[in-house]
Amino acid sequence: MKEKKEKQPQTSSQNLKEQALKEKSIMASLPDNLELIRQQLGNSSDIVIRQVGLPGEIAWAVVYTDGLADKQLVSEFILESAMLHDRVKEESKHDPASISPQLLASNVLAIGETKEISNFGQLFTSLLSGESVVLVDGHAAAITAGTRGWRDRGISETLTETVVRGPKEAFTETLRTNTAMIRRKIKDPNLWLETRQIGRVTGTEVSVMFIKGIAEDKVVEEVRIRLERIDIDGILESGYIEELIQDETYTPFPTIYNSERPDVVAAELLEGKIAILVDGTPMVLIVPALFVSFLHSAEDYYHRFDISTLIRILRYIGVFIALFGPSLYVAITTYHQEMIPTQLLYSLAAQREGIPFPAFIEAIMMEVAFEILREAGLRMPRSIGPAVSIVGTLVIGQAAVEAGIISAAMVIVVSTTAIASFVFPSYSLANTMRMLRFPLMGLAATFGLYGIIIGTFAIVLHVSSLRSFGVPYMGPFAPLIISDQKDAIFRMPHWAQVTRPKLMNRNNKRRQQKPASAKPKP
Amino acid sequence: MARKAIWLFVLLLILTPLLSGCWNRRELNDLAIVAAVGIDTVKGKYLVTVQVVDPGEVASRRGSIGLSPVTTYHETGDTVFEAIRKMTTVTPRKLYFSHLRIFVIGEELARKGMGEVLDLMSRDQEGRTDFYIVVAKDTTAQQVLNILTPIEKIPASKLYASLEVSAKSWAPTVAVQLDELITNIVSPGIQATLTGIMIDGDPEMGSKRKNIETPETPTHIQYKGIAIFREDKLVGWMNEEESKGFSNITDRLHSTVVETTCPKGGKLAIEVIRSKAAIKAKVKNGQPEAEVVMYTEANVADVECKVKLTTSQTLYEIEKAAEAVMQKHAERAVLKAQKMKCDVFGFGDAVHRAAPGYWRGNKEHWDEQFSKMKIRFNVDVKIRRIGTIGESFLNDLKE
């Protein structure tokens, strides 16, 4: 804390300079302005400055960033329309000074989005985010034209949250595309969008999206405050924002949900949650997040409710296995052999004959080997993928067992655990389980089942104490909210989900007016 | 300051599991899994025999290399526990008793009194008291545990399984676990019983691998008879018929075969499918009396005579015949017990429930009272089904 205070003066003098430039008004002289722009941007080659006018009497100029602005738009709807415009032609011959930026904006430019600006701060922001800036000689103002148009990946199928039934599209790296995808799903004037730039250097656009009237005002305000507090040089992914605004840093559990599916975000918005969209990443943050939402898949709502419920229960079993699988095996085989059915004990003991390592070391070795394989599978170039997986399967699956280093039962346990950790719709929760598995294994190896229970207690106490933007993380289990159970472990039919989750909403609770009206008549 | 305290706490938390040193940890391959224990008495000392499973031989998929699936160790000691611990000098691993399937008591020890050896088994924290206890008949426990058995590679598992199956579907065996045995030993109103196990064949031969190499095993172990105990001492044996009667009276009968005669000669077997028995006692003129009500449902299982099964009259006759046979078994069992003055059926408990006052004055010499007690039987057999065919084809034979 002390160190920070000492450094303050240094940075602030630099800040003051930047601040001064940002607030510097645009000058009346066009050459001066252009000179300043060139100088400030270090003559960067991707800044295009197009000057228009008779030789020696430059009347006005268009400045844009090559690659960010759509060249065709600039040339067709700014340059062409201005140069061929009768009045502009006329006036520029007689009295160039009479062409005001306002005139251009209102009368000449065939561009939907125009804005008048007066200082360099705004000018640079617009310029560097792809807009074109029109400066006119003799006027201390500029017009920005919305000519954003850069190459992007295009909307593609989701890779991280795949579904069988349901929309396949995923967000892209472009903020505007993403907001449009949500708007397309929710055509309601109450869907509000607040955009700000965060990041001293990157100036990343961050949008807060919520449905006015459904989202709790206090939570929206809290999100604003927390975003306002961020002071960092760059935001490159929504993970930056997540870490900067979450309630609790020292927890293995994710307290902010993220998704790359527009339908998930739309559904969450309808429940009164708030989406935070960050330019440059397809991952959209959703707050407040509940533990249960990490176990819900979009598809749960698209399939029939009965199968959805069963699949959810399956996922909870998956959580249990992913978290406790190896530790239960270690605890029971090293401390509680009397719990194993006799025949199974014989077979397990036979498999362990000649294994040189204790079960715990065996389990750790296998788990680490698996984690390495998994990480390698993620990071390696696609083309070597098959080679690594073949080597991995052979080494871990077969050779280790045949060489008598690892028992076959351990391979089964570890691989079941590994598969179980992939049933989570949310990757961030899978990581949590992955992380907690190791301390639990340690506890199991030292205290047996007793240790596992201690560990479970610690985890349960911890998650129960967590909050996400003021909402209890373990809701609707702790605190127990009966009416919210309709969409936690169970997924009731849509006609039975009359109210929104109580934890999120206090004022606008109803989803449907008459509970029975939507229910099919017998 | 507060931060230091937190770090210190975290450090301690991490160190705790590391320093605890896994005090009770045993890997599966450090265990010698004991499947059966046998105890005999030799010159005033206990001879303890344990049957240890070689899991590699039992469960390996690669096929065994012909070693014995189990190994027996034996050791003598003044106490059972001493003998067991002494055994570590010969066993490669520490004996592990939780998966004990069967506990064999030598007949000699049983006659002398087996109370002392049972204490260890119920006291030891490692034990799981779900094993069965049997008595070696005309032999020693050590010899019984040395016999190799086919199909069920582990002899102890064979003993366990066949006792369970025969008690359920044949009846003249009782599957007794430790808790029940101890309760019966100490209760004045009922005496303990255990099933006997016999070696059929040459014991020497039975302990060789050769024993299980031929389809017909030269030596096998077989349950036979029920041992009657007075407190913890064996006093006599019931034969098969008596044992059936015993099972029936004590409501242990699940299913069995009752052999009767056909009305016109020849044999007919019925299969008991459901049976219920209750002892009703009362004291009349200062004398205890009891009535055993036995209600049995049965199917016709095996007709080996000419009989017209499809008439209710025949079925009625068969029922009557079966009732007579069952009553005869029960009477014989009671007679035997009365001769030995050993109330193995729990008539004492029934009297206790019916007339607590009388019981208080007579429980000290209940054995005497029991031997003179009048016991009536009320047997009711109902034939439910006659199987998948109606009349027997034997009727069509000309002969």
UniProtKB/TrEMBL annotation, chain A:
GO CC list: membrane
UniProt superkingdom: Bacteria
One Pfam entry name: GerA
Gene Ontology biological-process entries: spore germination
Keyword ATP-binding: no
Residue runs in coiled coils: none
Transmembrane segments: 274-295, 316-335, 384-401, 407-430, 442-464
Entry's family note: Belongs to the GerABKA family.
Descriptive protein name: Spore germination protein
Taxonomic lineage from the root: Bacteria, Bacillati, Bacillota, Bacilli, Bacillales
Automatic annotation (TrEMBL), chain B:
Domain Spore germination GerAC-like C-terminal: 224-387
GO biological process terms, semicolon-separated: spore germination
NCBIfam families assigned: spore_ger_x_C
Entry keyword annotation includes Lyase: no
Gene3D superfamilies: Nutrient germinant receptor protein C, domain 3 (3.30.300.210)
Family matches, as Pfam families: Spore_GerAC, Spore_GerAC_N
Subcellular location: Membrane
Keywords: Germination, Lipoprotein, Membrane, Palmitate, Signal
PANTHER family with a match to the protein in the record: SPORE GERMINATION PROTEIN B3 (PTHR35789:SF1)
Gene Ontology cellular-component annotations: membrane
Name of the featured protein: Ger(X)C family spore germination protein
Topological type in the membrane: Lipid-anchor
Keyword Lipoprotein appears in the UniProt entry: yes
Family: Belongs to the GerABKC lipoprotein family.
Spore germination protein N-terminal domain sequence ranges: 24-196
Chief location of this protein within or outside the cell: membrane
